[in-house]
Amino acid sequence: MSMDSTAQSLISQYLSSLRSQRKLSAHTVDNYGRDLVELRGLLAGPDKDAQAGDPDLRKTTQVQIRKCAAQLHARGLNARSISRKLSAWRGFFAWLSMEVELKANPADGVKPPKKSKPLPKALAADDAVRLVSQGDPAKDPSSTMATCNRAMFELLYSSGLRVSELGGVDIADVREGAYESAGWIDVDNAEVTVTGKGGKKRKVPVGRAALEAIAAWLPIRAALVKADTGTDCHALFLSERGTRMSPRVTQLRLKAHGKSLEMASDVHPHMLRHSFATHVLQSSGDLRAVQEMLGHASITATQVYTALDFQRLAQVYDQAHPRAKKS
Predict the structure, then answer these.
(1) For the segment 114-156, what is each residue's pLDDT rounded down to a tens digit?
(2) In Å, how far from its chain's centre is CA 216?
(3) pTM
(4) 150 is annotated as an active-site residue
(5) Is 103 among the catalytic positions?
(6) Average pLDDT value over all residues in the chain
(7) Catalytic residue flag (residue 73)
(8) Which has the closest alpha carbon to 239: 167, 154, 161, 308?
(9) Which of 34, 197, 200, 226 is catalytic?
């Protein structure tokens, strides 16, 4: 039996066992077959004449499997797909070890490359401004909650707050008995103080548009304050019942507002935080300042926004440079 027919025969026998013994569907078996044919091609190499010879799958080593996985990664295949192929190869060699003598399963211990973390989604500057500046067209723009929503959304985008931090902002720095404000707005100094992760407090500037939206909200807020709501009466943002605005309600309101404006993305509060970081970095280039304003303990967490900025620059280059056109 030639080397080429040996490889073909082993793969065919394995696929047959998947159908008859494991009762796998035809679609699943086809997928296994493609993965094994791909392995055979990777082991043979690009310059090997299929008619002249074929790799002996019985002699495959772990080093070869690692190299095959690395080749797939170099071709741009994602970690999940490589992991699936390794699983298929591992299953084949496990079966082969029961049919012929193998020193070990060469796919055992071979791990796919680490899954790359997806970049955070940020809105374009024009979309972010449209989202936070426009009232809900389904409601009266002067209504209580529309005014509250605009103030919340403006502050989220203006200062890059987490939604949990926004909910903890009080009308002032309050210290009453056991209660101490986790955060507060300082309109006179145009800044907000919040308590971030690890209980670390930080001060962040508040922009003019957010201050104006908050100023419009404050008289309405005063009418909602109730004496029987405990410490909620100190909260900057209140519900119709006079209770502190919860992160979940803020999320739902922003999502509904985005839909009413027919935004392309499914917007959420953290998207405004990403947008804040991206747009400030694009304008200033000051990574350290963005780190401080976001409250990141490590600069590494902030560096992801440099990748977002580079993507934008790359798009501009591709569109503008006469020699950047891709065929």
Answers:
(1) 766 666 788 988 999 999 987 654 455 557 789 999 999 999 9
(2) 34
(3) 0.62
(4) no
(5) no
(6) 86
(7) no
(8) 167
(9) 197
